[in-house]
Amino acid sequence: MIVTVKREPSAPRVCLFWAYVVEFFDLFDATNDGRDVLSENNGELANLETGVKTWLWVIRQLKRFGLKKQLAALKEHYVRDLTESLHEGVAHSMRSFAINLISSGEAHEEHTYLSAEEFCTKARETMAKVIEIGPNQLHCCLKGFSNEDGVDQVVTWARSRPLDDRPSGLDDAHPVDGNTVWCALLGRNDRHTAWQPFNCFSSNDLASHSEHFNCTRDAWPTYYRSALVYPLRYIRKTDRRHFNVGFLAFDSPKKDAFRNIPDIFEYRNSGELRSEYHDELNKSAIFHTGAAIADTLSMVMRPFYEQHQAEEQPLLPQPNDGEGA
Questions:
Q1: Cis peptide leading into residue 162 (ω within 30°)
Q2: Quick one: CA torsion of 305, 309, 312, 317, rounded to 10 degrees?
Q3: N or C: which end of the chain has fewer CB within 10 A?
């Protein structure tokens, strides 16, 4: 069951609003320009002067009771909450996953799955703090590749908690060329678009692009309306060539879950638009939060791919080598 949570004004937003109000009236109160303008004998300006003077009086009284210190403390609490989630949540669970990944034995296979699930959960929790969304409105998945009868497929290694009813593992394998997300990140043709390789797939309304979006999962709109997906890449030492080893995906059944993220479908038809898309992504704190997690995960998974042959753990070559997520 999916629980709908109404988004209310968050503490960080209220905090930042009042911080800007205080800073504005501090600046106004410290200069003569504003008071000189309001001192003209004009009815509308006189009313405005009265209002501004009232606000100045209110702000001065609030400052007497330590408003600015309280606002600074609130902002510090918000930043600490987010960075603590990145450090003690994501980084620590990622370290545990990496250690189990390169260990051997049946016991370690179970530990690897559990630590991957824990990592996905911590990544989801961190992203949820950034986009301010409920636990059942956002999911994080870790995906890798398999090859069945010469067909490249994407399989789900682990999902975040709370779980929905999507399957995982080899039972949840989907052909790469049947999914627009994978084709966009790998630079393949999904029968609608001959994609150049993108460094991130983002869309806040997949249903509105159904004529250009392929997905082999049944009833996919039930599970995701918004998506933010990053490639996981391995760079070979010998020739510095990039290989794709999997994906880190955030998705939500809610439209517009990722605020101010560009929609990849609006940039899909030319290299110039592709560059503009990446420029727009770079303006987003949401994008950088997920990219930091994905790029770090790519690095900690490196020993695993150095210990295994490509035929055992498929590596898909990047058609146009580029930077990480």
A1: yes
A2: 70
A3: N
DSSP tag of 40: S
> Cα separations (Å) of 166 from 1, 126, 220?
12, 22, 10
Q: Which of 153, 157, 214 is nearest to 181 (CA)?
A: 214
Answer yes or no: are the C-beta atoms of 198 and 319 closer than 8 Å: no
- CA distances for 299 relative to 88, 94, 314, angstroms: 18, 11, 17
- Name the 3-class secondary structure at 285: helix
pLDDT tens digits for the chain (325 residues)? 333 334 444 555 555 555 555 555 555 555 554 445 444 445 555 555 566 667 666 666 666 666 666 666 666 767 788 889 999 999 999 999 988 888 766 666 788 889 999 999 999 999 999 999 998 999 999 998 887 778 888 988 899 999 887 766 556 788 899 999 999 999 999 999 999 999 999 999 999 998 999 998 888 888 889 999 999 988 777 777 778 889 999 999 999 999 999 999 999 887 778 899 999 999 999 999 999 999 999 988 888 777 764 445 555 555 544 444 4
What's the gap between Cα 44 and its chain centre?
A: 47
Determine the Cα–Cα distance for residues 281 and 16; give it in Å rounded to an integer: 23
Range list of β-strands (E), the chain? 139-148, 151-159, 169-175, 201-203, 226-235, 242-252, 316-317
Amino acid at position 152, single letter:
D
The pTM of the full predicted model, rounded to 2 decimals, is: 0.75
> Residues for the chain: how many in total?
325
Contact status, residue 214 vs residue 179, Cβ threshold 8 Å: yes
From residue 271, alpha-carbon distances to 211, 275, 323 in Å are 21, 6, 16
Which DSSP category does 162 fall into?
Answer: S
| Residue 308: strand, helix, or coil | coil
Quick one: tokens of 288? Answer: 């950088």
Kindly state the DSSP code that residue 114 receives in the 8-state scheme.
H
